[in-house]
Design goal:
With 292 residues, this protein is α+β, with helices and mostly antiparallel strands. Helices cover 42% and strands 18% of the residues.
Length: 292
């Protein structure tokens, strides 16, 4: 199949000797195309409105919003049409912070003091949203960070990560299926997820997966939801939707064929499930993403 969309792999000037970059931005409008990079990124929208595309999620952004974007997550910010009209009174302003993928790797992965920050960074592979209404301390830290340098900047940045990791006011943006990278804490659930990753595009009965896990169906359902936060049925549907999003962006194949390849029983079921998950039917999603 021929590719429909090239997602740019952005190379950032981040290194072990310079692991953190913090700067203010002031644009007439966002202009960078759909892209990804190995580094983490925090975007604080101090002023401006538009649409954000993170992984397989499309949503509005507003002044005050904060985004934590994990390593290699495709993303794109599109300012509202009014910002492209030449009106010099409209600007998008804020702060961008970028830091290397292995930032303080040993400490974060081995010291118990960093356990919440470790979880935050793990979750960021799907993108995390902090709402404008309830994040005044985060906004204050983000407004100060570019003004500092050296050790003072690093200490302020650690305070920012601490605040992000401790707030309950955050929302994971993209679904795990789009990323196809899930981190769990036991060998059993890892084995189950690996099996699902290889088989989710075909019908998998509850009896089959429960037998694979050496559990009865009721016990499996309780166990699976306790580990993933989702029912088995919804987890499979989310995996299929994530795969469908990739095919809609990257492959020049019909929506009917995508529905079949992703394991949906009919195109009507595919359309209904896709819209319920993302707010768009597949054709609208493809059209919107390819305009980026």
């Amino acid at each position: 199949m021929s590719p429909m969309k090239t997602i740019m792999n952005e190379r950032l000037p981040i290194s072990e000797s310079s692991p953190l970059k913090a700067r203010f931005f002031d644009y007439a409008h966002f202009s960078y195309p759909l892209h990804f990079h190995s580094e983490y990124e925090i975007i604080y929208i101090q002023q401006g409105t538009g649409t954000r595309f993170l992984g397989n999620n499309i949503a509005q952004f507003d002044a005050g919003d904060i985004l934590l974007i994990g390593s290699n997550l495709p993303h794109f910010m599109k300012s509202d049409d009014a910002y492209h009209s030449g009106n010099t009174n409209l600007r998008v302003k804020g702060t961008i912070i970028q830091f290397e993928k292995d930032f303080m790797y040993y400490a974060i992965n081995h010291y118990p003091h960093f356990i919440k920050i470790k979880k935050l960074l793990q979750d960021s592979v799907r993108g995390i949203y902090f709402s404008s209404a309830q994040s005044p301390k985060l906004q204050d830290l983000l407004a100060k960070l570019p003004l500092e340098n050296g050790l003072n900047q690093l200490l302020l940045f650690l305070e920012l990560l601490k605040e992000m990791s401790e707030t309950d006011n955050r929302q994971i943006i993209s679904t795990s299926d789009f990323i196809n990278e899930t981190i769990y804490d036991t060998a059993r659930i890892d084995k189950i997820i690996s099996y699902l990753n290889k088989n989710y595009t075909r019908h998998i009965s509850l009896e089959e997966i429960a037998s694979f896990a050496a559990m009865n169906a009721a016990a499996f359902c309780r166990y699976f939801k306790s580990k993933t936060g989702k029912s088995f049925k919804n987890y499979i549907l989310d995996m299929r939707i994530g795969y469908a999003c990739k095919l809609l962006i990257m492959e020049d194949i019909s929506i009917s064929d995508i529905s079949s390849q992703c394991g949906f029983e009919s195109i009507s079921h595919f359309n209904k499930t896709f819209k319920k998950s993302l707010g768009y039917v597949p054709s609208q999603y493809r059209k919107t993403m390819l305009k980026s």
